[in-house]
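[recover] target loaded
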């Protein structure tokens, strides 16, 4: 019997019935590995309803839409800053979009290299969710129906009509591991990389990570319900740069960057513990997020994929001291997450210390919180309305001359 013929054990609806009645059996992706070892795959599949996955780390492609309501007199905002961080106003009169990587006005950036990037969009989002007061400064050219031309006021999240986190790309399915083979230190979104392979960095929860537990997108798709920093959000699209047509190991897990998810959730329901502004020296600002996604165990094959171990997940080590910038496709080597989490890896005979931008302990906390909510009947599952693309590549930006 192949996996496409694996008998269905339950449906999302029957799982939701068990959640409602308090009978659902839920394990984290960290726990399920040993459980299946002890019980055997078939028996465990009969018992387990849901496996919770999670991740916590910087996710630059994040942001939020904010609606301020109308002032008196009314204003059609055309330029706006929140705590001196530029927000995009090219939507309706009092809607703004704030991106996580936007710098504060007059930040010297890398003029004094390497810059510190102490405050930006990610920090504004953190402060907003923490309930802190922020300042809005906005300008307008004025119209007959929106005459006000300037406003400066303070607000917190409770003053907003809507505060919607809308993230075009989260939960990358296996991402680059970064090293620097050049002769000088480099400052990157993967952290500070010392010359001559002085260190190596990664950003993934490995065996806890959502799309590494569902490598072929059998259960996580458009419409899936997610735990987004404590709010009950959902997947609204494939993420940007979703690229599923990549090399995979025998267990179907990609061994390079692959799928991504676009997520949204109500910021007023979020827990500030899982929303953190991040400053990356010499690079910029970002936002670290905690995301949890439940996997319904519909059959034994789906359960088997959730037992993936760190040692079975391999990632490409890329040289950020030259190859990454030139997009030449070179890979230094591949390493597995068991080695990365040990704190040191061997690269071409050299022992290299490892640092992580993501937090496994925070991801595990998210997986446990999601498990508790499901067990308590507070979080139900949703069937995807559309599967993520399984055979999709990614285009590059070619630099061309002007039209003749």
């Amino acid at each position: 019997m192949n996996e496409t013929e694996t008998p269905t054990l339950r449906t999302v609806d029957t799982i939701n019935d068990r959640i409602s009645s308090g009978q659902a059996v839920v394990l984290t992706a960290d726990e399920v590995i040993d459980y299946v070892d002890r019980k055997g795959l078939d028996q465990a599949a009969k018992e387990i309803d849901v496996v919770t996955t999670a991740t916590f780390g910087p996710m630059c492609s994040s942001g939020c839409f904010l609606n301020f309501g109308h002032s008196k007199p009314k204003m059609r905002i055309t330029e706006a800053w929140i705590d001196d961080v530029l927000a995009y106003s090219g939507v309706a009169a009092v809607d703004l979009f704030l991106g996580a990587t936007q710098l504060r006005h007059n930040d010297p950036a890398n003029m004094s290299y390497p810059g510190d990037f102490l405050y930006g969009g990610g920090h504004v989002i953190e402060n907003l969710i923490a309930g802190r007061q922020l300042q809005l400064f906005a300008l307008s050219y004025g119209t007959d129906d929106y005459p006000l031309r300037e406003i400066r006021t303070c607000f917190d999240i409770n003053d907003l009509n809507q505060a919607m986190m809308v993230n075009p790309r989260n939960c990358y399915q296996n991402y680059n591991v970064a090293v620097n083979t050049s002769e000088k230190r480099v400052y990157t979104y993967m952290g500070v990389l010392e010359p001559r392979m002085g260190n190596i960095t990664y950003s993934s929860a490995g065996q806890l990570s959502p799309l590494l537990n569902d490598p072929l997108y059998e259960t996580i798709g458009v419409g899936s319900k997610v735990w987004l920093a404590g709010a009950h959000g959902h997947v609204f699209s494939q993420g940007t740069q979703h690229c599923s047509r990549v090399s995979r190991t025998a267990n179907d897990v990609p061994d390079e960057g692959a799928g991504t998810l676009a997520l949204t959730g109500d910021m007023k329901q979020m827990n500030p513990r899982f929303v953190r502004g991040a400053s990356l020296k010499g690079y910029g600002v970002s936002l670290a997020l905690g995301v949890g996604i439940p996997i319904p165990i519909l059959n034994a094959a789906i359960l088997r994929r959730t037992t993936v171990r760190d040692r079975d997940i391999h990632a490409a080590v890329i040289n950020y001291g030259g190859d990454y910038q030139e997009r030449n496709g070179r890979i230094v080597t591949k390493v597995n997450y068991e080695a990365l989490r040990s704190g040191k890896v061997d690269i071409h005979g050299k022992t290299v210390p490892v640092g992580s931008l993501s937090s496994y302990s925070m991801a595990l906390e998210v997986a446990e919180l999601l498990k508790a909510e499901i067990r308590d009947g507070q979080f139900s599952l949703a069937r995807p309305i559309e599967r993520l693309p399984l055979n999709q590549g990614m285009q590059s930006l070619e630099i061309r001359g002007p039209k003749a």
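[recover] notes: The radius of gyration is 23 Å.
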